[in-house]
Amino acid sequence: MAGETGNCLIRNDWICAEYVRTRGQELTDATLQHVGITVVSVAVGLLIAFPLALAARRRRGVAGPVLGLTTVLYTVPSLAMFSLLVPVFGLSAAVVVTGLVLYSLTILVRNILAGLAAVPEEAREAARGMGYGPVRLLLTVELPLALPAVMAGVRIATVSTVSLTTVGALTGYGGLGNLIYEGLHSIFKAEVLTASVLCVLLAVVADMLLLGLQRLLTPWTRAGRKRKAAVARWT
Amino acid sequence: MDVISRTWAWLATGAHWSGPDGVWHRLAEHLELTAVCLALSCAVALPLAVVLGHTGRGGALAVNLSNAGRAVPTFAVLVLLTLGPLGAYEPWPTVLALVLFAIPPLLTNAYVGMREVDRDVVEAARGMGMSGRQVVGRVELPLALPLVMTGVRSAAVQVVATVSIAAMVGGGGLGRIITAGFRLTDTAQVVAGALLVAALALLVEGVFVALERWLGRARRRRGPVAPGPGPGPEESAERTSPVPNEWSAV
């Protein structure tokens, strides 16, 4: 029986359906941990990046330090970043999440700032003329118009975060990275390849989902294109 | 706060700096691997970017490569190459992984730099009777240099970071101090190693920023390199910021 079912496990093949079948639970758990770490990191990153970007936009004195600090944080290698956070949080998921939040800040703050800067002054003037206050202007005019740039930042941050989470295996909280690290030590090829492929798939799927979300949130960008196409067909 | 004093004590212990596991030896390994891989990836990526940028072909390749580079985890590639047939020939799996991940920033920035050169300037150079080779050497490359250098800087910082991850797979370099610290559950050593790795990355970034500034000043002293000192080419040449999309942390 073992000769038939455990064949590719015994031969230590790279591709092994038997591995996926027998360790399905392990793979699911690791994938869920990976998704959880990524979602929490990007969400917290966004929550922190918005006020930072708004503050940086309002005052030039804030913009310099904020952009400088996030760039410095971005230069710190992930291995060092996670290690430096270990004495603060102990060996916990907080280490990995905090490190990933700090990395995502650089991308998110820059893209939010770029998106807000690209809002046409005419749109702002028109809204002010209609009696919009600063908060309403931000929420109903500026943010929707900045959304494509913001979403581009969220996509880059998410894909990078999925990839960087694997290094968290050092602390035991690396999602699929844990399986890769484990497979390295036990020289288990199927485990390493399956986890690696799943990790890339996760990044691609997340990117596509966010692209779909962006299209849903900004229907006017597509409607404009369709109308233009329709006009082109009519004339 | 006890960690800070213990980390300081670790760093102040002379024995931790000497010997094959010492900081100096690990630093030398780190720098050697970084220099070799940066040189190899430049040798592969830059000529390719110049050819693609000059002919205007392969733009999609240059952009998609950096997107793909972001989605593929460096750590996974390091482990895959180590367990693969190349694994018996250490340090080649590490070198290959490092070169593969350094190519996208180099290629994309140099390609964008070549494409951003004002077309009018290129036309003028051709009108003056310059051959394709001369256009590349005397007009396009000098004007693309700031972005090429930006690519080299991000590749260098990235290689430094990836070398540290290679320690998780059994490679050398300063990362080994961190991984050994984890194995010994010695937090002071982990933090000390992390400080050294972070300092090295920031130092490399700083050196390249200084180099770019120095090159920029040298260019301005010599005056416009390209024919036609119009504001167009100078403007595009001074644009040192890479497209933010090219960023990726390791």
TrEMBL record, chain A:
<dbReference type="GO" id="GO:0005886">
    <property type="term" value="C:plasma membrane"/>
</dbReference>
<feature type="transmembrane region" description="Helical">
    <location>
        <begin position="35"/>
        <end position="54"/>
    </location>
</feature>
<keyword id="KW-0813">Transport</keyword>
<keyword id="KW-0472">Membrane</keyword>
<dbReference type="InterPro" id="IPR000515">
    <property type="entry name" value="MetI-like"/>
</dbReference>
<dbReference type="InterPro" id="IPR051204">
    <property type="entry name" value="ABC_transp_perm/SBD"/>
</dbReference>
<protein>
    <submittedName>
        <fullName>ABC transporter permease</fullName>
    </submittedName>
</protein>
<keyword id="KW-1133">Transmembrane helix</keyword>
<dbReference type="GO" id="GO:0031460">
    <property type="term" value="P:glycine betaine transport"/>
</dbReference>
<feature type="transmembrane region" description="Helical">
    <location>
        <begin position="66"/>
        <end position="85"/>
    </location>
</feature>
<feature type="transmembrane region" description="Helical">
    <location>
        <begin position="193"/>
        <end position="213"/>
    </location>
</feature>
<dbReference type="Pfam" id="PF00528">
    <property type="entry name" value="BPD_transp_1"/>
</dbReference>
<comment type="similarity">
    <text>Belongs to the binding-protein-dependent transport system permease family.</text>
</comment>
<feature type="transmembrane region" description="Helical">
    <location>
        <begin position="91"/>
        <end position="113"/>
    </location>
</feature>
<feature type="transmembrane region" description="Helical">
    <location>
        <begin position="162"/>
        <end position="181"/>
    </location>
</feature>
<keyword id="KW-0812">Transmembrane</keyword>
<dbReference type="InterPro" id="IPR035906">
    <property type="entry name" value="MetI-like_sf"/>
</dbReference>
<dbReference type="GO" id="GO:0055085">
    <property type="term" value="P:transmembrane transport"/>
</dbReference>
<feature type="domain" description="ABC transmembrane type-1">
    <location>
        <begin position="31"/>
        <end position="210"/>
    </location>
</feature>
UniProtKB/TrEMBL annotation, chain B:
<dbReference type="InterPro" id="IPR051204">
    <property type="entry name" value="ABC_transp_perm/SBD"/>
</dbReference>
<dbReference type="GO" id="GO:0031460">
    <property type="term" value="P:glycine betaine transport"/>
</dbReference>
<feature type="domain" description="ABC transmembrane type-1">
    <location>
        <begin position="27"/>
        <end position="208"/>
    </location>
</feature>
<dbReference type="InterPro" id="IPR035906">
    <property type="entry name" value="MetI-like_sf"/>
</dbReference>
<dbReference type="GO" id="GO:0055085">
    <property type="term" value="P:transmembrane transport"/>
</dbReference>
<feature type="transmembrane region" description="Helical">
    <location>
        <begin position="155"/>
        <end position="178"/>
    </location>
</feature>
<dbReference type="Pfam" id="PF00528">
    <property type="entry name" value="BPD_transp_1"/>
</dbReference>
<keyword id="KW-1133">Transmembrane helix</keyword>
<feature type="transmembrane region" description="Helical">
    <location>
        <begin position="190"/>
        <end position="211"/>
    </location>
</feature>
<comment type="similarity">
    <text>Belongs to the binding-protein-dependent transport system permease family.</text>
</comment>
<keyword id="KW-0813">Transport</keyword>
<dbReference type="GO" id="GO:0005886">
    <property type="term" value="C:plasma membrane"/>
</dbReference>
<dbReference type="InterPro" id="IPR000515">
    <property type="entry name" value="MetI-like"/>
</dbReference>
<feature type="transmembrane region" description="Helical">
    <location>
        <begin position="95"/>
        <end position="112"/>
    </location>
</feature>
<feature type="region of interest" description="Disordered">
    <location>
        <begin position="220"/>
        <end position="250"/>
    </location>
</feature>
<feature type="transmembrane region" description="Helical">
    <location>
        <begin position="33"/>
        <end position="52"/>
    </location>
</feature>
<feature type="transmembrane region" description="Helical">
    <location>
        <begin position="72"/>
        <end position="89"/>
    </location>
</feature>
<keyword id="KW-0812">Transmembrane</keyword>
<keyword id="KW-0472">Membrane</keyword>
<protein>
    <submittedName>
        <fullName>ABC transporter permease</fullName>
    </submittedName>
</protein>
